[in-house]
Structure formats: C-alpha cells, structure tokens
Amino acid sequence: MYRGLAKRIIPCLDVKDGETVKGTNFVQLRSAGDPVELGKAYSDAGADELVFLDITATFEGRKTFTDMVSRVAREINIPFTVGGGINSIADVERLLHAGADKVSVNSAAIINPGLISEITSKFGSQVCVCAIDARHDSDGWHCYIKGGRERVELSLFDWAKEVADRGAGEILFTSMDHDGVKHGYANEALARLSDMLHIPVIASGGAGSMADFKDAFTIGKADAALAASVFHFGQIAIPELKRYLADEGIKVRIQH
User: Fold this and answer.
1) Which of 14, 48, 212, 223 is catalytic?
2) How far, in Å, CA of 181 to CA of 162, rounded?
3) Is 211 helix (H, G, I), strand (E, B) or coil?
4) Out of 48, 133, 215, 223, which one is annotated catalytic?
5) pLDDT higher than 50, residue 2
6) Per residue in 29-63, pLDDT tens?
C-alpha cells in the first residue's frame, strides 16, 4: 500500500561519545565527524530523513546523546529517528521531547515485545521504527540483539510479522552479513519482507554504489534505503544519487 510513494534516502549516523563512527560487520569503528554538522550537511544535500543511533547507550552516553538530539533538532528541517538503548516509555518521551520525530527500538523490543504496543498506543505508529538486525545462518535468517552479539531463536520473517501486527510504523532491516561490506543490500530477504508486510521496509547494510540503491528499490522492493560510510566518507553524494535514481525511473524527491 506504500509502494507508490517516493523512495527515501536516509543517511545513518552511529554516535559514540558524541562523535559519528562507522565500522564493518558491526566492528572496527573509525571516526566520521561531528553528528550535528554531518546531519545538517545531509539535510542541506537533500536527504529525506536521518537516523542517529547511540551505539554505546550507557547512562553517561545517554545524556550526551540527548543533548545532541536537541542540537540536531535546531539545525535540520527533515524528519529524524533516534535509537540505541531505548527500553521504556520514559526513554521515548525524553528523546521526543528533545526533538526527535521517531524512535527506533531493537533489542528491547525482542526482549519485551509489548514495548512496541506501548509506544504505538501512546504516541502513534508513525513514531515507532522497529530495527531488526539479522544474519543468514545455516538454518535461515535469524535475529540478533545487543549490537549483533547475541543470536535469538526468532526468525527474521516471523519477528517482522509480529512487529507489524503490534503496530510499528516501519521496519529497519539490517543484514549483518552485508553491513559495511559494500557489495549490495540483502535484496532477496528485502523483497520477501516487502511482499509480506503492510508497512514500509527500510533497507540497511551493504551500500557500495549507486546501483546498489537502485537494486534495493527494484529487486528488494524497499521503501527507503539507509547507508552510512558511502555518505560519510564522500564516496556517494546524495544529489548525484538522486539524479541517478530518477534517470533509472525510480521516483525520488529532488531539491530544486
């Protein structure tokens, strides 16, 4: 039901101790700059939305991160999602109050699925993005929690269906096998998710070229594509990416 809308391009900023970092397969982090400055640059360049993830959501980190969310909200004029360490309605309220448009829940939702229902009933479906980190193991696609460190006995597709049924507004699916490798998104799994769900699916993990984005939208049927390092380190510029996608017949919003 969402397939006619313009496809969205979403830079993702992993934030650790107040700076943006990027790794490969969830490890080997390196610095990529100030998240507020990067966010503003992406907003000015025509990104449709942004995602900020607090990847070390300790108590001290949360305070730093909440301050950063407030600074981002003052600087940009596009919707942005924040995630990392969100375990309660109080966490959601704190981040929305700081200026976030949406929150992303991941491990906490798998441990306590009722959290999704709580968030959506209090704030509406549009506020709740459910992030799912999954890996294609020998016995199929399985979900992982705690930053990809711990496998749970939940299949990607069963959990995605439950998430949608509980009222989440979107699913952000990251293929851990593809993360940071830059060989393309997990398009077969994406297409299966898009076909079975009535909510938008955001592709994450694997962008290395402009063609990878096209494939996520055409083969993977994704509603949005998220990427980090190709944007942070200047390999792909958002205006050029959008022009390329438009030339390929994909509906995107282009700034004039």
Assistant:
1) 14
2) 29
3) helix
4) 133
5) no
6) 667 788 999 999 999 999 999 999 988 776 666 88
